[in-house]
Amino acid sequence: MRGATVDIVRDARASGDALPGTSGFGGAVDGWVVRDVLGRVPVFTDATDPTVWSEDPADFEAADPVPAGHARTAGGDERVWTLPDPNPVADETAAVGAVRQAVRSAIDAVDTEGLAVAFSGGVDSAALAARLDAPLYVVGFPESHDVEAARTAASKLDRDLRVVELSHADLERAVPEIVAATGRTNAMDVSIALPLFLVAERAAADGFDRLAVGQGADELFGGYAKVARAPEDERVAADTVRGARREVVQTLPEQLERDVLTLRGAGVEPVAPLLHDDVVASALALPGTSLVTDRGERKWALRLAAREWVPDPVAFREKKAVQYGSLVSRELDRLARQAGFKRRMDDHVTRYVESLS
Description:
By secondary structure, the protein is of the alpha/beta class. The protein contains 17 helices and twelve strands. The strands form three sheets. The chain has a five-stranded parallel β-sheet with strand order 10-9-8-11-12, with helices on both faces. A four-stranded antiparallel β-sheet has the order 1-2-6-7, with helices on one face. The protein starts with 5 loop residues before the first helix and ends with a helix. The model has no long low-confidence stretch (mean pLDDT 95).
C-alpha cells in the first residue's frame, strides 16, 4: 500500500470516509485493490487477472487502471468512496482561515530530503517554495512567460532559481519517453507532460529524487476560466461556480495518472501538498465568491491564505497554464508544422507526436 497504512485504508473503507487525512493511497488491502477518491496514487491491474496489481502499467501487457474511489476484486469494481459535497461555509473569513491552516500544515509536513520544487512564479508553486528549504527549478523556452515570472518571484522570495531552458531538440527527445511512460499521444496531454518531464529530468540529474508540485490548486480553488464564467461557458454543464469547480475536480484522477507517470518516468517521485485531504476538504467547503470574486479574480481564497507567507505581488499574480507559459505548446505545434503536419489536418500535433513514438 502506498500513501497510507493498511489500517487507515481499512478504516476508511469501512466508514466510507473519502478524506481520511492522507495525500492519497493505492494498493491492496484485505483482498481488494483500492485507489483513493481523487486517484492521487494510480494503480493498475492485469486485464487478464484483476488480483495482480502494480503502480506501473508497463508491468502488464494489458494494464487496466483501477477507477478512483473504487475497490477491485476478481468479481469486479465497487465504488467505496465518493467526493464530499459539503454546503459552503457561511463565514468567508473562517473559510479562508481553514484553507490557510490546511495548506500551511500540508506544506510544513513535507520532508525536504532529496526534494526539489517545480517553480513557475504563480501562487501555487510560490506557496510551496516560500516554506520549503529546497532548490527551485523553472522550465521553459528562453523568452517564455514562466521563466520571467519565476525569476521575478524568486527574487521577491529571496531565493535562488535554477532555469531549465528548452530547445526543440529537448521536445523531440522527450516526446517518445512521455508516450512510453503514460501511454498517451494526444496533443494536450503531451503538451502538459513535457514541461513536467523536462524539469523533473533536470532535477533528477542534479541528484534529487522527489519533486514538489502545485498540482490540484487550479481544480480545487477555481483557477480555470471556464469555472469563473459558469454558467455562460459551454465547456461546463454546471450553472454555478461551485458546481463547475466540482466538475473540474472530478477530472483530477485522469490528469494525475498522466502527471504521476510522467514524473516517475523522468526519475522523480511527485510530492503534491495541495492535494492533501485536509486541503481538499477546506477547498470543497468554500463559497463560490471565495473561489472567484465578483470582479472575476480566480483562486481568491488560496491567494488570501498564502499571502501570510508569500509577497502580495506573487500571491495575486495571474499565470498561464504551464504548457502555454513555458511556450511548450506553441513550439510543439511549430515542430509539427515543420515536419509536414499542417494545421489544416485534423489533430495535426497528435499525428506528429505519434510519428515520433
